[in-house]
Every structure is written in C-alpha cells, then in structure tokens.
Amino acid sequence: MSSALDTLRKRFGHREFRPLQGEAIEALLAGRDVFLLMPTGGGKSLCYQLPALLMRGTAVVASPLVALMKDQVDALEGLGVAAAAYNSSLDGAAARRVLARLHAGELDLVYVAPERLVSAEFLARLDGLELALFAIDEAHCVSQWGHDFRPEYRQLDVLGQRYPGVPRIALTATADPHTREDVAAQLGLAEPLFLAGGFDRPNIRYRVVPKSRPVDQLLELTAGQPEASGIVYCLTRRRTEEVAAALAEAGLQAGAYHAGLTAVERRRVQERFLTGDLRTVVATVAFGMGIDKPDVRYVVHHDLPLSVEAYYQETGRAGRDGLPAEALLLYAPGDAGRAFALIERGRNHEQQRIERFKLRAMMAYAEGASCRRQALLHYFGEEAPAACGNCDVCLDPPETVDATEEARMALSCVFRVGQRFGAQYVVDVLVGSTKERLQANGHDKLPTWGVGRHHPRERWVALLRQLVHAGYLEQDLSRYAVLKLTDRAGPLLRGEETLRLALPRHVGRPRTAGRSGTSGSAGQRRSLAGDPGRASRREERPLSAAEEELFEELRSLRRRLAAEQGVPAYVVFNDRTLRELARRRPGSPGELLDVPGVGPAKLDRYGAVFLEALSDSSKGPASGQALAPEQPSLIGDADVRSQQPPRQ
Ligand code: ADP
Ligand code: ZN
After folding, report:
1. Cβ neighbour number for residue 489 with a 10 Å cutoff
2. Highest mean pLDDT: which of 83-87, 318-322, 561-565?
3. Structure confidence at residue 211 (pLDDT)
C-alpha cells in the first residue's frame, strides 16, 4: 500500500486517500472483488484507475456513456496515463490504433461500452491479453431494481465466468439495499468487499414537517433569507405552475420548470437561476441534472418524492459549497396516495411492484421519528453517527420512552417466525391474532404470541419501523418486505443493551381550522399507549404507511373482481370503504359488517375473498394482479381524505 500512496501523490497529485479509497484499492490489489457505493463526486474512479497503474496488464472499464468515457480518458491522459476509449465515436483508423495499443499491452486502461465488451469479438481479443481488473461503472444499471436498468448490463456476468482470476469492482452512486444485493448477484461477484460511504452531508439540515398550508410554509422558510437560492420540487407539472405563481404573487422571484416547457424556455429558467436572477425554481424532477450551482440554500419537497434515492439526490443539490443549507420535506400522507396512483398508471407490473416498495420506504422515512441522517445513511449502507444534531428530530427531539422491553419482544418475534414475514404478520403474532394463516403456521403456539396485546397494532408497526431505521432490523424489499435481524439486534436481545425510542410525531394530523402548525412541535405529538382522540380518529386519521400498503392491495383485489364481473370498481366497494378496511382490518364477517359500505349483500358476495386478503396481507402485495388499469381516483389538489365525506 505504500506504493499506492506514492502513486496517489505522484501521479494523481492528491495528498491522502479519501475514506474507503484505500480499502477498495487494497482489496483489488489482493485480487478481491469490490462493490463500491459512493455519491457522485466521491472519488470512485480513482479506486480502479490507481490499481490499474500498479497491476500488471490492462484494466477494462465498462462505462455506459460515450461522453463520460471521453472525459475520463482526457483526464487520465492529462496525468500521463496510457488510457483509451474504444467505442462507436471512433473512426476506422482511430479504432485500429486503439486496438493496436491494446494488443501491444501498452494501455493501462481501456474504456468500453458494456454491449461492446461482452461481444464475442471483443472477448476474443481479451482472451489473449493480460488483464489487471474489470471495473463496472454505473453498476446499478445491471438491476431491474435500479432506476436505470439496461438489459445489456445483464451479460456482464460473463466476465467472472471467463476470467475468474481477474478482480472486478462494481461502482455506483445510488443503490438501495436490495439493488445492491441484486447487482452483486447479477454480476456474480465473488464475496465482494462491500464499501459504502461519503453520503453524509453534514451541512444540510434535513427536516420533515407536516404539510399544512404549503405556500405559507415556503414563504416562512424564505422569509429569513430573501436573497437565497432554492429549488422547490413538485410531483406534477401543474403543481409547479401553481406554486410558482403563488410564490411570485407573494413577491418572491420564482419560476416553474418542467418537461412540458420548450427547450428554450427551460434553458432560460436554468440560466436565470444560475446567474441568481431567479431565486427560486419550482420544478419537477426534470430539473437539476447537470446543474452545479454551489450556493443553493434550500431544497423543498412540496410533494413526497417517489423514492429515498430521488429524495437524497434532490436534497443533495443544496449546499454544495459546504455552507449551511436546508432540505425541507412537506409531508401529507395523502400525497402518498397520489403517488401510488401515479405508479398504477405504469404498464410494467414488475416495475410497479418495485416502485411501490420504494415509495413505501420513502413514506417510512417521512413518518420516522429517529434522526433523519441516520435513517438516510443506513439506507445507503453507511455507518451512521449516533445522532446528527442537525435534523428536525435531533433539534426538536420527540419525547423518548424506554423501549427496551418492547423492542426485545418485537425482535424475538421476528426471530421466532423464522425471519420470513413482513411487519403486519409479526404484529399479528405480537397482538395474539387468531387468523387462520397464523394458526396454520403454528405461530399461535409461539412464546411471543400475544405478548404485545396490551398495545394497539399501530404501536407495534411504528416500533418495527423505528427498529429498521435504527439499524436493528432490515427489510428485504425483494421478498415482500420480510423483516430480518441485523448484528446490532444481538446485544439488545441478550439484555446487554437498553434502548430508548421516540414517540412518533403524528405527521398526518387532520387539518383543523385556526391552526397552521408549520413545525413538528409538541402539539403534534401523541401518546401511543394512551392514544387520545382515538375514537374521533377512526374516520379522520389518514392512513399510516402500513395501512396505505394494505389499501393498495385491496384496491388491486377490487380491480380484479370488478374486471372479472365486468362492473366499475366502485360497484364492488368505494375507496372510503377500502380505507376503512385497511384501518380496521376486520377479521370476521361480523366485524366486516361494521364497516361503512358493507351491507349483507356485499358481505355475501365479497366478504370471504376480502377477509382472506385481509388475513393474508402480511404476505405483501398480491402478485399477478391488475387486469384493467383503473382510473386513479385520487385527483385534484385536495388531500385524499377530503374526498371522504365526514361521517355524521
Ligand atoms: P465519482 O466517480 O465518484 O463521481 P470522481 O472519481 O470523478 O468521482 O472524483 C471526483 C473528484 O474528486 C475528482 O476531481 C477527483 O480528482 C477528486 N478526488 C478523487 N480522489 C481524491 C483524493 N484522494 N483527494 C483529493 N481529491 C480526490
Ligand atoms: Zn439527526
């Protein structure tokens, strides 16, 4: 490694390795596969470029974009490194020159597009060469779970089979826990060293606030810093226009930006933003790619982003200059309903399933009650500091309670059901449900069965979520969000540790007149066990993440039934009834009849199949669902719940 440091200084002109670079390089030099997850700009390329110089033979880099290859090769040539790109941009003569240098063993690095790399012709060339390593850039493209799936990446597994002794490094800036595993599996990496880091952006203050009057909330944020630049992200084009207009009316220089504008209009907004002429851009996700404005002081999410990756990437545009910046998420659970509806419009069912999972992870983040930075860093697989001191939860800590005993119950229950079930099922066992499925599995005989019946279900669902955020449990998103213990769970289970957890804030507080409630203050806290206002919440309370999930399943079932019978969906049950079903989870025909919208005729016709679905719901979303796409019923700007007439 001393030669590595030497090369770093002499060739690359950097004084020290950044975190993880040394580990990655050391592993490759020792012949081990590596999976490296670091944000853009973190310094990933050095991790294969430097070993390429130290190892015998040529390093082959799979890179999807011709333009990126060129940048890298230019930079390397500037450092006096023998590197070349072999791609479609070369004319015949230039391509022949690259191949000649490759075969002469003159190149330390060669960049190729993945489809070219796996072609029979190119592999035949590699067979005769000495190879240092393979680097697979933008490795998330190999997984359907990544946001940028490219089928040609799938064939890269041939590298491991054909050149088993050549170490490989997969590099990416975004991958949720499941995508990571999938990428490693698809590429056939051999017990890779997994490295993730550099995701912490300590100068960004993350805040999640219940969305009440969003424009007022935005103005409040900007009031103290009228000169500051910021980006406000909205889910739809129409919303960007509306919000921009409202801000402009309030005297803020704001402009909308979305894919519906002409290229000229978009460029104009972009330029005005970059020069500081336009303070605030209200945009859809289309805005931000390639915008490198260092002094963005705030990024606001007016609507719930569709995934934690998207959220992280968008908030990451704040404070690139390292000065204090703010990332504010305005959260209304109803937005999640709209986002689910948006996903429903997609055509590819597998894709929809993945997107729903990602959205749920985002909801869990928004509804979480532990340090935001910790939750984010855990999501990206990075070790997190104890608590960051610079997020809404750390700054205005919710009350905490000693949760050691309950956490032990929950963790041991996860363990006893074989780490093979999702949260709803685990909660069923904890509260002592007598559902058929649970009995069939013999789980009503477990010592943990019913130990938690003194708390309401929501309490346990919230606790499980907190245990995920705090790193005691992980959720396998590929397999119906099955819960598993992590290494951290051991000491707690063995009684070597205690745990205090926050009482969740009640983010989804129903709107009440005369209270603007713009900050997550004590007013929104609610006791879990005591549960004040439970009776009135029955109809008003928006769905929790778990309930929203169940609601989605029920909608799928309804769609299927409606399609089978050739009737409109609402003839089966309306949304309000489905919501109540998701909330109450009736377990018997009698309980079902109690739900508004369920009469004897409907009970007769649909009762059995819905009860079955409700008792099965911990399995995850029904597969093979969705025949006719349903017109999303969540329209307009009102919250979802406002469509439900209040019960008299
Ligand atoms: P990534 O591929 O992760 O997006 P790059 O490899 O392009 O990031 O690196 C981003 C920047 O960081 C480059 O300008 C690079 O020169 C610089 N860099 C990389 N490693 C170091 C280091 N150890 N010390 C200082 N700068 C570094
Ligand atoms: Zn924090």
Report:
1. 23
2. 83-87
3. 86
How many whole angstroms separate alpha carbon 136 and alpha carbon 36? 10
Regarding the beta carbon of 42 and ligand 1, being less than 6 Å apart is answered yes
Ligand 1 mean position, distance from CA 19 (Å): 11
Q: What is the pTM of this model?
A: 0.64
Q: How many CB atoms lie within 10 A of CB 554?
A: 23
β-strand pairing of 400-402 with 500-502: antiparallel
Contact 424, 482 (CB under 8 A): no
Q: By the 8 A CB rule, do 646 and 539 touch?
A: yes
Helical spans, DSSP H, in 79-199: 92-103, 114-117, 120-127, 158-162, 177-187
How far apart CA 100 and CA 110 sit, in angstroms, is 12
How confident is the model over 364-397, as pLDDT tens digits?
Answer: 899 888 899 999 998 888 888 788 999 999 998 8
Q: How many other β-carbons are positioned within 10 Å of the β-carbon of residue 182?
A: 20
| Locus of tokens 């000491």 | 491
Rounded to whole angstroms, the Cα distance separating 589 from 612 reads 11
Ligand nearest to the CA of 377: 2
Q: Tell how far CA 441 is from the center of its chain.
A: 32
Parallel, antiparallel, or unpaired for β 193-196 and 34-37? Answer: parallel
Q: For residue range 305-355, what is the model confidence (pLDDT) as tens digits?
A: 999 989 998 999 999 888 999 999 999 877 887 888 888 887 788 888 888
Ligand 1 site, residue 38, Cβ cutoff 6 A: yes
pLDDT bin (cut points 50, 70, 90) of residue 289 is low
Ligand 1 atom with least separation from CA of 15: 24
What are residue 485's DSSP bridge partners?
Answer: 473
User: Is 71 close to ligand 1, i.e. is its CB under 6 Å away?
Assistant: no
Q: Region 71-76: what's the mean pLDDT?
A: 91
Atom from ligand 1 closest to the CA of residue 42: 3
**Angle ∠(90,95,101) on CA atoms, nearest 5:** 135
Q: Which H/E stretch holds residue 367?
A: helix 349-367
DSSP assignment of 377-413 equals HHHTT----S--SSBHHHHSPPPEEE-HHHHHHHHHH
| Residue of minimum CA distance from atom 25 in ligand 1 | 14
Contact of 417 with 411, CB cutoff 8 Å: no
